[in-house]
């Protein structure tokens, strides 16, 4: 299915709590986040900035309508794009790719939450699961959302694959503590998946049968191991969605419905959407 002409009419402003946050960070600052309120990749970087208690300037752009000035900063035209304070001799410094931006902020700033562990093994393990999130869960989320009847794979097939990858992720979570993925506390693994976890309701909204995660009342008849998986998932989900730095980055729910309709119909012209449609790795 060929995508239609790209819709560039996305609301130019965040709403709800996210609007409040953008206004708080609207003043000029040498550290600038070029962002889109609706973008889950942006949300990773945005939450990291909030967790690290870093001052910054939030600049809203429409990635479907890229200005020459923005493309001069990031020729790939992807968000988030982080512009750093000038380096030696005023040299401009720019970073993009959401996980790289998050890691840079965590390593550069000692304030706030430490998102990657100090221990080399635990840090490597965290990166391993961030990679799993990227390749299996995030890619699977788009494959699920962009399913249409003409696809060579079935909706039930993509649902089964996504849920199995989700089970794998949950089984690696720490059993103790406050609900986070790792025993060391809220970290980069949590940040890496939570924007898509918080958008699973969009799959429920657009796809027949929804994601397929058993509700509480449906778990009684499940085998014990399966029931524990979804109980642990619920504990993690409630923990991440209740975190103040996360709540502040969400716009009103109804705003996402229109944005993701083009994904649900596989009509999006985004780079992520095109990669998913063509069976390529996400950009």
TrEMBL record:
One Pfam family cited in the UniProt record for this chain: GST_C_2
Keyword field contains Cell division: no
Top-level taxon in the UniProt lineage: Eukaryota
Domain (GST N-terminal) ranges: 29-113
Domain GST C-terminal residues, every copy: 119-270
InterPro entries referenced in this protein's UniProt entry, alphabetically: Glutathione-S-Trfase_C-like, Glutathione-S-Trfase_C_sf, Glutathione_S-Trfase, Glutathione_S-Trfase_N, GST_omega, GST_Omega/HSP26, Thioredoxin-like_sf
Keywords, alphabetical: Oxidoreductase
Family, similarity comment: Belongs to the GST superfamily.
Annotated protein name in UniProt: Glutathione S-transferase
